[in-house]
Amino acid sequence: MLYEGAIRFLRESVVSIESRDFNAKRQSIDRAVAIVQHLQSTLDMEKGGPVAADLNRLYDYILSRILDGSAKLETAALEEAIKLLKVLLAGWEEIAEKERNNPVPTALFAHPAESSGFKLHA
Question: 48: which DSSP letter?
């Protein structure tokens, strides 16, 4: 949902730049930047390892394109940020779909107390 929100706000920014509505542009840019910064701040660099580091660099780049496009009123930079966010969104959607299609077997959780040698008493 965050990716979708950032994409939506960036699209609004493009429209605002094209229509010369700079107040609306500022608001939508601020919202898009806040979302990307939030995504970046929630990365667990320790547990995420190289993937988190790569995402961190990509978020930095996306933020730079958003801010550059906003400052120079260049929609191409915003379109590039949109494209990158769409790729990330598609990637996460693919991962979620794989998880839905390959759930953890319930047999692994059938009787954890018995398999460990411990018995629960009611």
Answer: H
Q: DSSP letter at 104?
A: P
Per-residue pLDDT 10s for the chain (122 aa) are 999 999 999 999 999 999 999 999 999 999 999 999 999 999 999 999 999 999 999 999 999 999 999 999 999 999 999 999 999 999 988 888 888 888 665 555 555 554 444 444 44
Query: To which residue do tokens 């590039």 refer?
Result: 80
Q: Residue 120, SS3?
A: coil
Quote the DSSP letter at residue 116: T
Structural domain count of the chain = 1
Evaluate whether residue 121 is within a structural domain: no
Q: What's 6's domain CATH number?
A: 1.20.120.340
Report CA torsion sign: 88, 99, 46, 44: positive
Domain range enclosing 37: 2-115
For residue 122, give the amino acid letter. A
DSSP 16-66: HHHTT-HHHHHHHHHHHHHHHHHHHHT--HHHHHHHHHHHHHHHHHHHHHH
